[in-house]
Design goal:
The protein has 248 residues and is mainly α. 83% of the residues lie in helices and 0% in strands. It has a domain of 156 residues.
Length: 248
């Protein structure tokens, strides 16, 4: 007659089976997480989505900025410029909020030029140059601020996401230690779920932070390049209208 004890699983086998039955998929880690850790995960997911929305928005905006600037620079470099048609074209773009830095620099400079020449009185060249430089400088600064929108958000996401994930990690590990203390059991079946949740929070923090930091550095370099090109174009526009005044 067989010994019934031989068919009874040992305690170690029960623990192994229990550990193997745990589902460590990402969804299960999320839904089975502690309330605080789940809140941390939701916050990081939200920050990650916000980050990628800004990244794609700026990618297409900067791509369009480069294309329209190149076209406008090429048009403006021609020997003859139809100022009336150009002003009408830029006004339409301003109304639809699709203008670029080159266009608004020219537009504001042309408004000042039309303002001083419409009176029919002699124009003080030095006064005009000073006023024109001030307008162009203000426009360039304003355009840089426009291009820098949401950059602070990217920098903030890149800075705080790892710390939010670290908070979730610390909380998850604390829960694991509490589970050990309450069950008097140090097996992996007790410790592993809390540790997995904690590491998942850290991973989400890095997933949100790394793209944000990379995009911030890349777009900051692009903005500096745009600003340099705007400075050069502003000088060119200022010289162009100064020469037009001098001809009169």
């Amino acid at each position: 007659m067989s010994d019934p004890k031989l068919n009874t699983p040992s305690s170690s086998e029960i623990q192994v089976d229990k550990f193997q039955s745990n589902d460590f998929s990402l969804l299960e880690l999320f839904f089975k997480a502690d309330a605080v850790v789940m809140l941390v995960m939701l916050s990081l997911i939200f920050l990650s989505i916000w980050c990628w929305a800004i990244i794609f928005n700026k990618y297409f905006k900067f791509k369009n900025e480069i294309k329209t600037r190149d076209n406008f620079e090429q048009y403006f470099s021609t020997s003859e410029i139809d100022h009336s048609a150009l002003e009408k074209f830029i006004k339409e773009k301003i109304e639809s909020n699709t203008f670029n830095s080159f266009e608004i620099i020219y537009f504001n400079a042309k408004l000042e030029f039309s303002k001083v020449t419409s009176t029919g009185r002699p124009v003080n060249l030095n006064s005009f140059v000073e006023k024109l430089e001030s307008i162009i400088s203000y426009t360039i600064t304003k355009e840089r601020h426009r291009l820098e929108r949401s950059m602070t958000v990217l920098a903030s996401i890149g800075s705080i996401s790892p710390f939010i994930g670290l908070f979730g990690t610390v909380w998850g590990i604390m829960n694991s230690f509490q589970s050990i203390a309450m069950s008097n059991n140090t097996s992996l079946a007790v410790v592993a779920p809390g540790i997995a949740e904690a590491l998942f929070a850290t991973a989400l923090g890095l997933f949100a932070a790394i793209p944000a930091v990379a995009a911030y550095n890349k777009y900051l370099k692009d903005i500096d390049m745009f600003n340099d090109k705007s400075d050069h174009f502003g000088q060119y526009v200022g010289l162009y209208f100064t020469q037009e005044i001098d001809k009169k």
